[in-house]
Structures are given as C-alpha cells and as structure tokens.
Write a structure and sequence with these properties.
Elements (H helix, E strand, L loop, with lengths): L3 E5 L6 E5 L2 E5 L14 H24 L5 E10 L3 E10 L3 H11 L3 H8 L9
Antiparallel strand pairs: 1-2, 2-3, 4-5
C-alpha cells in the first residue's frame, strides 16, 4: 500500500514530501503566505484522482482491446453549496458507446470510491 512522510520546517509553507519513494514539494500560493514552490494540498488531491481515473480507464480499454488513443481528465474543485469536484473526461479514439462505458467506469475508480465514501484517519503522536 501507499506510504509517505511529509516534513515542514520554518520555510513558509514549503513541505518536503516523500510518497512511496518519490520526492515531491508542496506549498501554498502567495495569497495564503506561501511561495507557490509546489502544488497545494488540494492540488495533490486532484492529481491523485485524475491519475487514478486516467490509469483505470487506460487499463479497462486495454483489457477490452479498444483503440483508445488518449484520455484527458479535467478537474476543478468547486466550493459552492459545499465542496465538490467537477470532472470532465475527453476521450479520443472510441465510439460513443465505448466512451459512455468509460464514463461509467470513472465513477467507480478506487480513488473516486474512496473520496465518495470517506476514509477513516487514525492520528497518534510518535
């Protein structure tokens, strides 16, 4: 399973992130006191959802032998009447029926289901 460590020091609000052996940098934008040195936390959330969606759709199309050329997953976090994500799929190379099936599959990707269902988080001091 995935695992990670995030560290922050006195550098407003730059964070050193290591997830599953990959080094990343997170930050906030200047409007929140950061220097925009990397994606903000909600940007990482959208990135995870988008990557999971694209990978799952590619896997499904490959298993079916469909001629999928590309999938683009557009994501927008909206805070209107509650926080929600607008996801737009642009699919190239498939017919309408195949695209509709991939849109249906997108609703059941692992990260989609996790976000829709919620996830318990256990916090403790080391």
């Amino acid at each position: 399973m995935a695992h990670g460590t995030v560290r922050i020091g006195k550098d407003h609000y730059r964070t050193a992130i290591n997830v599953s052996g990959h080094d990343l940098v997170g930050d906030e934008g200047p409007g929140l006191g950061g220097r925009n040195l990397g994606p903000a936390p909600y940007d990482f959330l959208l990135a995870g959802l988008g990557a999971c969606t694209a990978i799952t759709l590619r896997m499904y199309a490959d298993r079916k032998g469909w001629p999928l050329e590309s999938v683009e997953v557009g994501l927008h976090l909206i805070n209107r009447d509650g926080l929600r994500i607008d996801r737009v799929l642009t699919i190239v190379g498939l017919d309408d029926e195949q695209m509709a099936r991939l849109a249906d599959i997108a609703e059941r990707t692992p990260v989609t289901l996790t976000l829709k269902g919620g996830l318990p988080i256990d916090t403790r001091l080391a």
